[in-house]
Amino acid sequence: MITSRTVFTLALCCSFIACKPDDSSDKSSTHNSSDDKAEPDASAAPTLDPSLPGHGKPEPHPAVLGTAERGQYLVDHVLLCGVCHTPSDANGDPDLSLYLAGSRSYDFRDVDGTVITVNAENLTSHDPEGLHSWTDSQIRRALTVGIDDEDIAIYPIMPYPEYSVLTPDDVDSIIKYLRTVPPNDNVVPADYPRFDQNPPAPPVKESQVPHTTLSKSDPDYDAAERGRYLATVACLNCHTEQITPDVPDFTKAFAGGKKYTFIRGAAEHTSVNLTPDSTGLGDWSVKDIEDALLTNKEKGTGRTFCNTHPGGPDRLGGMKASDRHDIAVYLHTLPPIENGPFQCEASADAGVPDASVSGNGNGKPDAGTSRLKADAAMTLDGGSK
Predict the structure, then answer these.
(1) What DSSP line would sit under 203-259, residue for residue?
(2) Residue ranges of E strands in the chain
(3) Could you give the CA distance from residue 306 to residue 319 in angstroms, rounded to a whole number?
(4) How far apart are CA 16 and CA 303, in angstroms?
(5) Of 36, 32, 78, residue with least CA distance to 214
(6) Displacement of CA 183 from its chain's centroid (Å)
(7) What is the pLDDT of residues 56-74, one digit of tens each?
(8) Structure letter (DSSP) for residue 32
(9) How many other C-beta atoms are found inside a 10 Å radius of the C-beta of residue 299?
(10) Three-class secondary structure of residue 107 per DSSP
(11) 339 near 255, Cβ under 8 Å?
């Protein structure tokens, strides 16, 4: 968890997204509206077993909705928690022996100029290094509100403002899956210096996210609205400029323009405009977008997207074909917004470690100017934010 003490989970999509084909459809993987976001049944029996998470403390709202299987899909291929919470090996590939065990580090610059280093937390079920002692309610609050188990606000490098729109089923599915992740005793360094950001960043309101321009009678309308839900949690954070730190400018939703830096001294990269404007994806068809999501390569040029984008078969490339299609339909039918065009350019030193590389092979991100978020925070091996 990213807080003055911890980092929780990441998200998401920077520069673009990539997916893997799967002809099976999964109606549980898509959602159109926040109208079905009923709270989990509070009458469910509280957890009192001392061997269970929370050490016997009553659990007023246990995770009773969804499935662990759905949670794994979201964690691995939509929210992409491993981009931050799974360290890399010497080759820059995810070190699966430390799956979700944390330890990536990120720098932020406070308003007084102090550089604050925060570390991606251990999300495994280990006691005490992981989430074993967290209640389901505490994980739910961290994921969607941005407050950790010690009532400390989380740095919104974790896009919990966007995750606030996750349906109750999906939130509980994530909680259920995290409970199944084998314990790993990896010790995550403490954040330094300790810093309590109060209050947490405001949540994204579902009503602020633009709808498709398709009429409700259009046969693709439902697909576009399902894509809207997925794109909100997977793409909005990185592909939307901000009015003030961590407050998205919804007049430019999905229109790109947010800047990132891989390592100190490297050239900036800018998220691309995903709307169907000539400065964005105006000449792309739905099929073009689907292919790009699948291959992680740019239409026409075949250029691989910037490694700020966590694409590939083990990340966004594992998304279901039906979800990939829904996202493509949504992006293709967004209101066009003129902004850009933007394109990352590989710098001469891209991928070359320097003095800022941490012990696990990740580049230490450049310090940003925001009290809340380092817009320049990126890892060397393709991690985002």
Answers:
(1) PPPGGGSPPPSS-TTSTTHHHHHHHHHHHHHHTTTTTB-EEETTEE-GGGTT-B--E
(2) 105-109, 115-119, 242-244, 247-248, 259-261, 268-270
(3) 19
(4) 12
(5) 32
(6) 22
(7) 455 678 999 999 999 999 9
(8) -
(9) 16
(10) strand
(11) yes
Owner of token pair 């999906």? 170
As a whole number of angstroms, the distance between CA 277 and CA 288 comes to 15
- Specify the 3-state DSSP secondary structure of 270: strand
Question: For the chain, give me the number of helices (H) and strands (E)?
Answer: 8, 6
CB atoms within 10 A of CB 112: 6
The span from the CA of 166 to the CA of 232, in Å, is 9
| Separation between Cα atoms, residue 326 and residue 319, nearest integer Å | 11
| pTM greater than 0.70 | yes
Paired tokens of 277? 């404007």
The pLDDT assigned to 118 comes to: 80
Closest CA to 199 of 338, 332, 3: 3
CA distance 19 to 325: 10
The DSSP result for 117-152, as a single string, is EEE----SS-TTTSSTT--HHHHHHHHHT-B-TTS-
pLDDT winner (highest mean) among 51-55, 142-146, 246-250: 142-146
CA distances for 264 relative to 201, 259, 356, 377, angstroms: 26, 14, 7, 10
User: Tens of pLDDT along 257-291?
Assistant: 987 654 444 566 789 999 999 999 999 999 999 98
Compute CA distances 231 → 76, 258, 324, 326, 381, whole Å. Answer: 15, 16, 10, 9, 23
Report residue 123 CA to chain centroid gap.
15
Instruction: Note the pLDDT of residue 195.
Output: 60
Residue 339, helix vs strand vs coil: coil
